[in-house]
Design a protein that fits this description.
alpha+beta; 3-stranded antiparallel sheet; 43% strand; GFRP_sf
Length: 84
C-alpha cells in the first residue's frame, strides 16, 4: 500500500493518532505499535496509537513514507503520505 492517511482530533500535541483502517498493512501497524479498535456507533475498525502525530510522522519517515499533503477538517487534522 503506497498511500497512508493518518489523523488526529482536537489536540495534535498529545495524540492519539489514527494510523490506519481495517485494511491496513498489519506489519506496518505493528511497527507503529498500533491497536485496532471499533468505536461505538461506527461500522468499521481503525488502528490508533497514543503517540502524537509528530512521533508517528517521524516513524513513518524512517520507513520511507513522505507527506504528500495535510489539511484540517473541522477539528481533525489529516496527513496523506506516500511510499515509493
Amino acid at each position: 500500500m503506497p498511500y497512508l492517511l493518518i489523523s488526529t482530533q482536537i489536540r495534535m500535541e498529545v495524540g492519539p493518532t489514527m494510523v490506519g483502517d481495517e485494511h491496513s498493512d498489519p506489519n506496518l501497524m505493528s511497527f507503529l505499535g498500533a491497536t485496532k479498535r471499533n468505536m461505538l456507533g461506527n461500522h468499521f475498525w481503525e488502528y490508533y496509537v497514543n503517540d502524537a502525530p509528530r512521533v508517528v510522522l517521524n516513524k513513518l519517515e524512517s520507513c520511507g513514507y513522505r507527506v504528500v499533503s495535510m489539511t484540517g477538517v473541522g477539528q481533525t487534522l489529516v496527513w496523506c503520505l506516500h511510499k515509493e
